[in-house]
Amino acid sequence: MIKNYFKIALRNLWKNKGFSAINIFGLASGLSICLLILFYVTNELGYDQYNSKADRIYRVDADLLFGGNHFDLTQVPDPMGAELKRNFPQVEQYVRLRDHGSIMVKKGNQNIEEDKVILADSTLFSVFTLPMIAGNPTEALTQPNSVVITESTAKKYFNSTDVVGKTMIFGDTGYYKITGVIQDIPKQSHFHFDFFISMYGQLSIYEINQWASNNFNTYIVLKKGADEKQLSRQLDGFVMKNVAPVFQAMNLTPEQFKAQGNYLHYTLMPLTKIHLYSNKTGDLEANGNIQYVYIFSLIAFFILLIACVNFMNLSTARSANRAKEVGVRKVLGSLRKNLIIQFLSESVMISFVSLLLALLIATLLLPYYHHISGKD
Fold first, then answer.
1. Alpha helix stretches (DSSP H) within 250-375
2. What is the sign of the dihedral through the CA atoms of 161, 165, 166 and 170?
């Protein structure tokens, strides 16, 4: 019986080629555009999910108002991470990242400028999932003048990933020992660096153990089951206690500091929200915007809605021309449910063919989509 329904449906569609083509192509166009937008939305929502501890990693952010100047920062004082781990049992691990700026790297007789360079603590690999191809992640950044590079960087300078123990020259005078090679950082990450230089021995005395300056992107990992909101509520008081000596040097008490309209407010930003929700001073690279996700999602919804309404309108308009067919089939004893199944069979067939065509269109448009959106 089902086979007969689809056979009749196929004959009807073939008989009305013009109507079928318009209906199928109209629905396929809407579906293909919807698919492309869906690719973009899912890509944006998937940032930093590659980290095995993604749901427990948080960045410590600072919202400061002092002397009439407002600072919305992704950077916090140097001791923040270590002190949080020492004073709060729910903090499992931390890592600091410090922008290094561009460097000149020697390759043979030429110097190549590299700008994807960052200082990092040795705990980097205990926080982020950065699979190491060569080297020991627990020891890679523990020594001064040590550097971990990405797979593509190793091939760029040595044509091989077997480079642990070799030396790279930065700025003609800096000799750095390669202690690890990691896989290239996934594109869906809020940072992309090719050189991770050990933080050890790289900081000035004005940065070490200073609560008065905010220069470090600091990430913490909470233990499983830890309450992030509870820790957030304790941050301001904890920081204020540590900053008190700075106020004393300025002949201020914390109360006077607040009375003048100033404030220090620290928050925890979930790692998986950084790409879409963070637009602050100190972001490691340009982020996306959740508003675009909402806008494109709505556009996709309305395009799909219009395609469906158009499909239904065309089907309804055509059904009026089949009144004679329905009458004849009823006279011959066809039941109401059989007629319903027949019309639904035709709709399912059109929808299925439209979906296949939509997949084909989306595939053909992908190269242009990559070029326009910058996504892969």
1. 254-259, 274-277, 290-319, 323-331, 336-373
2. positive
User: What pLDDT score was predicted for residue 183?
Assistant: 96
Cα–Cα distance, 208 to 202 (Å, whole number) = 10
Q: What is the mean pLDDT of the chain?
A: 86
pLDDT tens by residue, 150-161? 999 999 999 999
Rounded distance, CA 376 to CA 370, Å?
Answer: 6
CA distance 240 to 264: 8
Spatial contact of 176 and 147, defined as CB atoms under 8 Å apart: yes
Q: 302-335: string of b/e by CB count within 10 Å (b at 16+)?
A: ebbeebeebbeebeeeeeeeeeeeeeeeeeeeee
HEC string of 60-126 equals EEEEEEECCEEEEECCECCCHHHHHHHHCCCEEEEEEEEECCCEEEEECCEEEEECCEEEECCCHHH
- CA torsion angle 183 189 195 196 (round to 10): -100
Q: Which amino acid is at 107?
A: K
Task: Indicate if the pLDDT at residue 331 is higher than 60.
Answer: no
What is the residue-wise DSSP string for 192-226? --SEEEE-TTTS-TTTTT-SS---BEEEEEEPTT-
**SS3 of 48, please?**
coil
Which 3 state secondary structure label does DSSP give 181?
Answer: strand
Confidence grade of residue 36 (pLDDT, cut at 50, 70, 90)? very high
Mean pLDDT of 30-44: 92
∠ CA 113-118-123, nearest 5°, is: 150
Backbone region of residue 159 per phi and psi (left: phi > 0; alpha: psi in -120 to 50; beta: other values)? left
pLDDT in tens, 250-280: 777 778 878 888 888 999 999 999 999 999 9
Q: Which residues pair with 265 in a beta bridge?
A: 63
Per-residue confidence (pLDDT) for residue 190, from 0 to 100? 95
Q: Which of 225, 177, 216, 198 is nearest to 55 (CA)?
A: 225
